[in-house]
Amino acid sequence: MPITLRPALPFDIDALWALRTVAVRVSCATHYAPEQIAVWTASPVPPAYVAMLAAGGGIVAMQDEAIAGYAMLNVDKHEVDAVFVDPARAGLGIGKRLLAALEQLARQRGMARLHLSASLNAVPLYQAAGFIALRAEAYAHPSGISLASVAMEKVLPPI
């Protein structure tokens, strides 16, 4: 089945958050404790999601009428806020395509670099896409927990 990309829209938020919850439970379980995963996945949709979508920063990957993954760009912070892929569709290059689309969106908006805080399991995806690890850090998750992560950055080529 082909993968198509489209802008994320406000009515997608619940489905995106449900996909994110499954992705965290499955994909992050190899790097984080069950107690961390439980708190992480119990957190509600952050208010920033609505603002990011309103600013045109969301991209959804569709496969066979289903959401296969999504990515969020915080335009104000020049930050990749999220890249999540349905674990049942892992290995199809969806994350790579979503990242490339976010980079194109960022370049169209005049951004010269992007940064992010990568979960430990996602570091290889970002490295393969050209992001450079800057330092290990403790990400203060909105749920109140601290998650080991890696601060990363990529200089974007001009359009």
Which properties best describe this structure?
159 residues; Aminopeptidase; three-stranded antiparallel β-sheet; alpha+beta; four-stranded antiparallel β-sheet; globular; 7 strands
Structure description:
This protein is α+β, with helices and mostly antiparallel strands and 159 residues long. It has a single domain (3-155), classed as 3-Layer(aba) Sandwich (Aminopeptidase). The chain has helices spanning 13-27, 34-42, 48-54, 94-108, 123-128, and strands at residues 3-7, 58-63, 66-74, 79-85, 113-119, 132-140, 146-155. The strands form two sheets. Strands 1-2-3-4 form a four-stranded antiparallel β-sheet, sandwiched between helices. Strands 5-7-6 form a three-stranded antiparallel β-sheet. It is globular.
The number of strands is: 7
Number of domains: 1
What is the level-2 CATH architecture name? Answer: 3-Layer(aba) Sandwich
Distance between the termini: 30 Å
Q: What is the number of helices?
A: 5
Rg (C-alpha, Å)? 15 Å
Written as H for each helix and E for each strand, in order along the chain, the element string is: EHHHEEEHEHEE
Helix content: 25-40%
Query: Unreliable segments (pLDDT under 50, ≥5 consecutive)?
Result: none
How can the largest sheet be summarized? 4 strands, antiparallel
Mean pLDDT, as a whole number? 94
Strand order of the largest sheet: 1-2-3-4
CATH class: Alpha Beta
What is the CATH fold-level name?
Aminopeptidase
**Structural class designation:** alpha+beta
Strand content: 25-35%
Envelope shape? globular
CATH homologous superfamily, by name? Gcn5-related N-acetyltransferase (GNAT)
